[in-house]
Amino acid sequence: MNLSPGQLDLLFQALGDPTRRAILERLARGPATVTELAAPFDMALPSFLGHVRKLETSGLVETAKHGRSRTVTLVPGAFTPVRSWLDEQRALWEGRLDRFDAYVQTLMQEKRDEP
Amino acid sequence: MNLSPGQLDLLFQALGDPTRRAILERLARGPATVTELAAPFDMALPSFLGHVRKLETSGLVETAKHGRSRTVTLVPGAFTPVRSWLDEQRALWEGRLDRFDAYVQTLMQEKRDEP
């Protein structure tokens, strides 16, 4: 994974907004035009386009112009850096619990070995 | 999971910063005082405390005062809402691929059945 510095920042920041997450949830079902995507939202088009642009900058979606409409598509594997970071945190955390467990086992063994 | 509205926003926003992610990576190895946490960062203490406060507001960490120092602890399971949302996206995406696969199978079957 060739992750540019700040890419993880952009990804998490893009996900920190309910409109942008709703757009991604819709796109997980398949590509859509900007007009289709905007329909459920009571929002001025420029604001809505700002959200789409933020998703595009983060690398989560791609857009392409077809005639007079613009189609938005989810980028396959775009969530991978986010998942990888979370998996690393879990591994660190579980490693810590394993070490704690081993420590408790050692204490208990010492207790049993006491005369 | 009792998730208040906006909680997912706060979580993703908290994760969208390299200093805050570094703090979480450190805390995955065990609790630390604010002084210990701040040591690796070339940052004024008020700015650093702002990051700790943002992590606390999002529910990712807890802080407790012990004498003159403040200990910061990772909250177990705090990443769960983030993971759940990502898992939902993956399920939607895979459901879509399965449906596409079934559609292609149907097309191929129809092709074979042609006289």
Automatic annotation (TrEMBL), chains A, B:
Among InterPro entries, the record links this protein to: ArsR-like_HTH, HTH_ArsR_DNA-bd_dom, WH-like_DNA-bd_sf, WH_DNA-bd_sf
Gene3D superfamilies, per database record: Winged helix-like DNA-binding domain superfamily/Winged helix DNA-binding domain
State the name under which the record lists this protein: Metalloregulator ArsR/SmtB family transcription factor
Which superkingdom, per the lineage?
Bacteria
Q: Which organism is it from?
A: Albidovulum salinarum
* Residues in HTH arsR-type domain copies: 1-94
Record-linked Pfam families: HTH_20
